[in-house]
Write a structure and sequence with these properties.
Elements lengths: L9 E5 L2 E2 L6 H16 L7 E4 L1 H9 L8 H16 L2 E2 L5 E2 L1 E6 L10 E5 L3 H11 L2 H19 L4 H15 L9 H19 L7 H15 L3 H9 L9 E6 L10 E6 L11 E6 L3 H6 L5 E2 L3 H4 L1 H18 L3 E8 L2 E9 L4 H13 L5 H8 L2 H7 L3 E2 L9 E4 L1 E4 L2 E7 L2 H9 L4 E5 L7 H6 L2 E4 L7 H9 L3 E3 L5 E3 L4 E3 L4 E3 L3 E5 L4 E4 L4 E2 L5 H12 L4 E5 L3 H9 L5 E5 L7 H12 L3 H25 L4 E5 L13 H11 L3 H11 L11 H6 L1 H20 L5 E6 L5 H22 L6 E6 L2 H5 L1 H7 L2 E4 L1 H9 L7 H10 L15 H15 L4 E4 L7 H9 L4 E4 L4 H14 L3
Parallel strand pairs: 4-5, 17-18, 18-19, 19-20, 27-28, 27-34, 28-29, 29-30, 30-31, 31-32, 32-33, 33-34
Antiparallel strand pairs: 1-2, 1-3, 3-8, 6-7, 6-8, 9-10, 9-12, 10-11, 12-13, 14-26, 15-25, 16-20, 17-24, 21-22, 22-23, 24-25
The protein binds phosphoenolpyruvate and magnesium ion.
Magnesium ion binds next to helix 30.
């Protein structure tokens, strides 16, 4: 890329040429870079210019001042457009009208404001009418402009303009906007101006350059609007300067029946089929399609209405796909039979279609496997693909309330809520909700994010609800016109079934069905495209992905999902079940070493059988087994009645047992008698577990299996703790090998989950054979936020922006990340090639996986369903790496 000239704030583009190109996304925003790119590859793009994100940043940080030179460059930009379009801004004969749109480096659909028809005033409107020989169209554009300008630039609620048009329609006795004639529209312009004046105290500005300056400011300011900030937070968008501002010549889809406007995807975003997919409206403007006011036509009908334009659109779609190596989402306008492409961007899509498009495009020779893995599927798409679906057998016809558009797949089951705030509150209280709206707007993103699924009664596949839900992989049924929603009554009905706020419903975003009650969900099946794609993923991945599993079912599932071993087997999870819990309780209440040994001996066969099953499921792969970790009282009852019942079961006096329970209670169990502290105070627990692990392993070896157990010591903070436990393990191993007259290779390592362990990692690494970051505890102890109680305030922290992410979900790279980096470095300085992994919840979260890759970790370990997500995140980290 040529070095950007200092002080250059405006980049022009017109047919066949442009100042910028697609590599300038950070500076021009995604839309601006694309417009420049499209222009230079010859697409019919209306001429325009882009004001840089740097200018937006300057405006934001310099109290709404423009940077030096911007004003003049902006004026030159307008002249550039005038020359190409052959029209003049503010001219009384051939006026140029402009659109002003936002566009950041990362796409934020519907988040930022747009102003259309800018440049209209009492004079230019007449000129437009004469020039187009369409007075009605000119005044219709004028009233739309006053509405948008008033709303976007001056913050006047859109409803105030809506009320004015509704009252005019009432007095005329008509229902549709299209039934208003030119005289009515002129009257409407006056009424809109009055609304503007009343709300602002000023006359509507008639100077086109003044309009333009104000509109540019409004786009700059929309970058820091509440909804934009929220969107960025939810979507983890950080590190951007601001938004670009795209000023472009208007072209019209509403000048008559040889005009149209529409949006289309180059492939079906729900199924991935290779076909144009989208909607258009004859004689309409862009917002008419998106707003869902008129029901748009299927794009295939364009073939009949304007066959040549359809062919042209199809060809441009193909050209754009091969140029960008990705499925495109295109906005177009047809003005008097001429096609203009207004925008193109990589199309949002469902997980299923992402995989199909990626594999199809490789097979069609448009892209290679590397490009497909790096760019065409997001880790969270896979999450979506693995989502459960509603079991259709559990749905009887009578319980179907309605069928809408299958806008975003997956099953969602929840209680109905009708507004965003209630959805957010309910989610904070741990309730599952379905957000039901007539249609959604950017104001609803908080509630949409909090809800399990979204249902709207209006709008198409490109409506706000559909686009946002698909992007997030959230189940959504859109445009379900079978139901009527009553916000006041907090209910909706299909005429037969009425559902109130708080009632359960289920939605199937893959079929578009809305079902009464809580339905069964089933696991998805993964098709051949998925399998093919994942083999490509693994070609580019060099970090291992293991799973956290403590039973054979989870281990088997994870292995099917591609897990390369177990990174964490939490042995305490094996102590549940009537017999086992009785045995561990006996162990806990033992008063003497002998008694405890006996109780542990009863537990040993259970543990050994479980380990055998898990090792078998992971034959040939490493399995890390962690020794007992939680505080012992977690295995004891709390309630008086339960205490009595358990005492009876154990055959001891209730008062005696109650005393024991009381004595084990801790003020702060998370920081109490748990982890290796248990093994140090009761080495016989470590002995029993080690014996179970190694006996299981040796026996399996003798049966022909290949097992390499890795024994992991939890909650280590000092090298002495580690050494003391390792000694117990090694001594037990000797005794097991003597007893069985056979041996097996095993390794002893530690979790790094206490900040002190990270600080003294070099010393610990002298004896430890591997490290595994327990980032759940490490996060808890680094922040000092209790894992059990943080829910009480984290919501508020996120809302207030005190934290950008929940650190228990997304690794806090700035803080906890430093400990990970330091411990890995110190560990490997002490012991070159030390094996290091992560087994906290973060091991399956794509951003955290990328960080682990950058730190040179050998593996991440996560829950079975996240294994494919982690595999893709690891491959992408490798492909994007400069490491
Ligand atoms: C951890 O602390 O990150 C961990 C994996 O262990 P647990 O969640 O069992 O405490
Ligand atoms: Mg832990």
């Amino acid at each position: 890329m040529e070095k950007v000239k200092q002080g250059k704030h405006v980049f022009t583009f017109g047919v066949g040429s442009a100042d910028g190109d697609k590599s300038m996304k950070q500076l021009l925003g995604g839309k601006g870079a694309n417009l420049a790119e499209m222009s230079s590859i010859g697409l019919p793009v209306p001429a325009g210019f882009t004001i840089t994100t740097e200018a937006c940043d300057y405006y934001t940080t310099n109290r709404s001042e423009w940077p030096k030179g911007l004003k003049e460059q902006m004026k030159n930009g307008v002249h550039f457009i005038e020359e190409i379009m052959g029209t003049i801004f503010g001219d009384s004969e051939h006026p140029l009208l402009l659109s002003v749109r936002s566009g950041a480096a990362v796409s934020m659909p519907g988040m930022m404001d747009t102003v259309l028809n800018l440049g209209l005033n009492d004079k230019t409107v007449e000129a437009l009418a004469n020039h187009t020989n369409n007075e009605r169209f000119a005044y219709d554009s004028y009233r739309r402009f006053i509405d948008m300008f008033g709303n976007v630039v001056m913050g006047i609620p859109h409803e105030e303009f809506e009320n004015a048009i509704e009252s005019l329609k009432d007095s005329k006795g008509v229902e549709l906007d299209t039934e208003l004639d030119t005289k009515d529209l002129k009257e409407l312009v006056n009424r809109y101006k009055a609304v503007y004046r009343k709300a602002t105290g000023y006359m509507f500005p008639s100077d086109p350059f003044e309009q333009l300056e104000w509109a540019i400011n409004a786009v700059f300011e929309s970058w820091n609007s509440e909804r934009a900030i929220k969107y960025r937070r939810i979507n983890h968008i950080t590190g951007l300067l601001g938004t670009g501002v795209n000023v472009q010549a208007m072209v019209y889809g509403n000048m008559g029946d040889d005009c149209a406007t529409g949006v289309c995807f180059t492939r079906n975003p729900s199924t991935g089929e290779n076909e144009l997919y989208g909607e258009f409206l004859v004689n309409a403007q862009g917002e008419d399609v998106v707003a869902g006011i008129r029901t748009p036509n299927d794009i295939n009908e364009l073939k009949n209405v304007m066959p040549e334009v359809y062919e042209e659109l199809l060809n441009w779609g193909k050209k754009l796909e091969s140029h960008y190596g990705n499925m495109q989402d295109i906005e177009f306008t047809i003005q008097k039979g001429t096609l203009y492409i207004l925008q193109t961007r990589n199309g949002k899509r469902t997980g299923h279609s992402a995989i199909k498009i990626a594999t199809d495009m490789v097979h069609e020779g448009l892209i290679d496997e590397k490009h497909a893995v790096k760019n065409l599927v997001e880790p969270n798409h896979l999450d979506q693909l693995l989502h459960p679906q509603i079991d259709s057998d559990s749905v009887d016809e009578k319980s179907i309330i309605g069928v809408g558009l299958a806008a975003s797949p997956g099953a969602a089951v929840g209680k109905v809520v009708f507004n965003s705030e209630t959805a957010e509150e309910a989610a904070e209280n741990g309730d599952s909700v379905i957000l039901v709206r007539i249609e959604t707007s950017p104001e609803d993103v908080g509630g949409m994010s909090a809800a399990e699924g979204i249902l709207t009664s209006r709008g198409g596949m490109t409506s706000h609800a559909a686009v946002v839900a698909r992007g997030w992989g959230k189940p959504c049924v859109a445009g379900c016109s079978d139901i009527i929603i009553d916000y006041e009554d907090k209910s909706f009905t299909n005429g037969k079934i009425t559902v109130h706020e708080g009632d359960w419903i289920s939605i199937d975003g893959a079929r578009g069905t809305v079902i009464e009650g809580k339905k069964e969900v089933i696991e998805p099946e993964l098709d051949d495209n998925y399998k093919t794609f994942m083999t490509w993923v693994d070609q580019f991945r060099d970090m291992n992905v293991r799973t956290n599993a403590d039973n054979k079912e989870d281990a088997t599932r994870a292995r099917d999902f591609g897990a390369e071993g177990i990174g964490l087997c939490r042995t305490e999870h094996m102590f549940f079940g009537e017999e086992r819990i009785r045995a561990i309780r006996r162990m806990i209440i033992s008063d003497s070493f002998e008694e405890r040994k006996d109780a542990l001996a009863a537990l040993l066969p259970y543990q050994k059988d479980d380990f055998k099953e898990i090792f078998k499921a992971m034959d040939n792969l490493p399995v890390t087994v962690r020794l007992l970790d939680p505080p012992l009282h977690e295995f004891l009852p709390e309630d008086k009645n339960d205490i009595e019942a358990v005492a009876k079961d154990l055959g001891i006096k209730a008062s005696e047992f109650a005393h024991k329970v009381r004595s084990l209670r801790e003020f702060n169990p998370m920081l109490g008698h748990r982890g290796c502290r248990l093994g140090i105070t009761y080495p016989e627990i470590t002995e029993m577990q080690t014996r179970a692990i190694l006996e299981a392993a040796v026996e399996l070896k003798q049966e022909g299996h290949n097992v390499t157990p890795e024994i992991m010591i939890p909650l280590v903070g000092t090298p002495q703790e580690f050494r003391s436990q390792k000694l117990v393990i090694d001594n037990t191993a000797k005794s097991v090998f003597d007893d069985l007259e056979d041996t097996i290779e095993y390794r002893v390592g530690t979790m790094i989950e206490i900040p002190r362990a990270a600080l003294v990692a070099g010393q610990i690494a002298k004896d430890a054979e591997f490290f595994s970051f327990g980032t759940n505890d490490l996060t808890q102890m680094t922040f000092g936020y209790s894992r059990d109680d943080a829910g009480k305030f984290l919501g508020e922290y996120l809302k207030e922006g005190i934290l950008q992410e929940d650190p228990f979900q997304v690794l806090d790279i700035e803080g906890v990340g430093q400990l990970v980096e330091m411990a890995t470095r110190k560990g490997r300085e002490q012991k070159a090639g030390l094996k290091v992994g992560i087994c906290g919840e973060h091991g399956g979260e794509p951003h955290s996986v990328t960080f682990c890759y950058q730190q040179g970790l050998n593996y991440v370990s996560c829950s079975p369903f996240r294994v494919p997500v982690a595999r893709l995140a690891a491959a992408q980290a490798a492909l994007n790496s400069t490491r």
